[in-house]
Amino acid sequence: MNGETSKPGWFGHPVLSVLLGVSWLALSHSIEPVHLLSALLIGLIVPRLLRPFLADASGLHWPAIPRLVGIVVWDIIVSNVVVAKLVLGPLRDMSPGWIPVALDSDHHRVNALFASIITTTPGTVSAVIDEEQRVIWVHALNCDDAAAMAADMKSRYEAPLLTIFKQNPGSAAV
Predict the structure, then answer these.
(1) Are 75 and 86 in contact (CB under 8 A)?
(2) How far apart are CA 133 and CA 160, in angstroms?
């Protein structure tokens, strides 16, 4: 097979297949048989066409994913309230700053998702991933204790990502 890794059957990316099918049904605003058939075909064919561009999803630790999603959604809700209070309150209550967050892995997907989660959470903006120094520089709207904030990000987001991608801290890139 020319050295490429084989993926199981038509469902090498079952989550993507389901998301595409459900998205099609949501966009069509219908569950008529023709739309159900279209959703099924889209869910089967599109991931198959994208196969050369997608990483193998079978190597993920799936049980850890819902927990991480729950943590991220909860943190986004709580952060929105905290940022609203900061922005609507006196400016002297804000203490912006740059936080270095050391990376425990060279795994590109772990680090990219870690940075994406940080940028999604209100009050923080990931500015730079420095791969040579293995650090993400994060700008925080309110940074009273940089070390505690970095440790919190690592335990809440990076540790679960390492588990999901079955990486040990300090592991090499994939």
Answers:
(1) no
(2) 22
CB contact at 8 A, 13 and 57: yes
**Tens of pLDDT along the chain (174 residues)?**
444 444 456 666 777 888 899 999 999 898 889 999 999 988 888 888 887 777 766 678 888 999 999 999 999 999 999 999 888 988 787 889 999 999 999 888 899 999 999 999 998 987 788 888 999 999 999 888 999 999 999 999 999 999 999 888 765 554
**Helix or strand holding residue 97 (H, E):** strand 97-102
Helix axes 64-88, 108-120, angle to 10 degrees: 40
Amino acid at 165: F
* Residue 163 C-alpha from the chain's centroid: 13
Q: Where are the domains of the chain?
A: 14-56, 60-164
